[in-house]
Amino acid sequence: MEYDKEINNYLDYLSSQKGSSENTKKSYQKDLKKFFNFLESENIDFYKIKRSEVRSFLAELNREKLENSSINRIISALKGFVKYKKRFGYIDKAGILEVESLKTKKYLPNFLFDEEYSKLISFERNNKEDYRDAALFELIFSTGLRVSEAVSLRLSDVKNKNGEITIVGKGDKQRTVIYGDKFKTALSEYLAIRDQFNPKTNSLFVNGKGGALSDRGVRYILEKRIRETALLKNISPHGLRHSFATTLIRNGADIRTVQILLGHSNLSTTEIYTHLGLDELKDIHYKYHPHGK
Q1: Which residues are catalytic?
Q2: Any idea where the domains of the chain sit in the sequence?
Q3: What is the pLDDT of residue 273?
Q4: 114, 247 in Cβ contact below 8 A?
Q5: Is the pLDDT of residue 196 over 60?
Q6: pLDDT by residue (tens digit) across 146-165?
Q7: Which of 100, 172, 191, 268 is most exposed by smallest CB count within 10 Å?
């Protein structure tokens, strides 16, 4: 495609200057290719694009019956690319940066209540997979880690850390998550049998072949455990993260504190983080999360 080189240059910029994750870069690449494929199909020059042609592209997205959230993601990727090009003299004559995002439906996040989580984690520990899965679920439920963060952990990240793990999350931002005795016990039991996987990696969580466990692998494991425990609620791995946040809020934790623990990146999160020290976060986590003790 004619614009492949420019897209790749932008993706390199996202890595080197913005610290964007691989998943973010893949999404932006997919969305930008969709836009430039449209331009090529209509014989439109990006450097001469008109407002009416931008509207035609948006109309095409609507004809494809994409969700508003998907269209907004594409708009965001395109705006980011235009801002990048402006650094090199590009003039946004078509008003791409003025395109407004569409209203999206607000969905309540799917999560587990305490008794539902207890049922999920109730399977017997008879083999190495049982101990691994219990530690994995307890980690996400007790700390609110993203699945990508959980599977990227190394052994060195969790050994002798005294209830803390330093995470490098979205946008290459660093934060500390806190856990209690529930995860300490599950982790200790898993580490005691981890060598049975014949691991070929220093990743904390490994698959049956000894390699690093993937995001997709976590989804498969969770779906399997849901079937085995006959849990009536079907949730994704991200639902365990929602469960962490919901449990804290339902038990009285301040929502701004929860934002810090989740690593959400916005102005209010940044402001409150400068005022709350790690010791205070530990106290709140200990007080309001049932597995924080």
Answers
A1: 146, 170, 238, 241, 264, 273
A2: 4-98, 114-288
A3: 27
A4: yes
A5: yes
A6: 999 999 999 999 876 678 89
A7: 100
Q: 3-state class of 212 per DSSP?
A: strand
Q: Which residues contact 9 (CB under 8 A, 6 or more apart)?
A: none
Helix extents (H) in 102-236: 114-120, 128-143, 147-151, 155-158, 181-193, 215-229
Fold match between 4-98 and 114-288? Answer: no
| Residue written as token pair 């420019």 | 6
DSSP H or E stretch at residue 31:
helix 22-41
Instruction: Say what angle helices 22-41 and 68-86 make with each other, to 10 degrees.
Output: 90
**pLDDT of 183 above 80:** yes
pLDDT at 275: 39
Condensed to tens digits (0 to 9), the pLDDT of residues 210-234 reads 999 999 999 999 999 999 988 888 8
The Cα–Cα gap between 24 and 41 comes to 26
Amino acid at 105: K
Query: Which residue bears the tokens 């300490």?
Result: 184
Whose CA is closest to 178, among 152, 139, 146, 205? 139
Distance of alpha carbon 141 from alpha carbon 144, whole angstroms:
6
Backbone φ and ψ for 168, nearest 5 degrees, come out as -105, 105
Is 248 buried (19+), middle (13-18) or exposed (0-12) by CB count in 10 A? buried
Residue 174 dihedral angles phi and psi, to the nearest 5°? -100, 140
Structure-block tokens of residue 276: 């709350």
Sort 143 into a burial class: Cβ within 10 Å, 0-12 / 13-18 / 19+. Answer: buried
CATH architecture designation of domain 114-288: Orthogonal Bundle (1.10)
Q: Give the separation between CA 148 and CA 128, rounded to whole angstroms.
A: 22
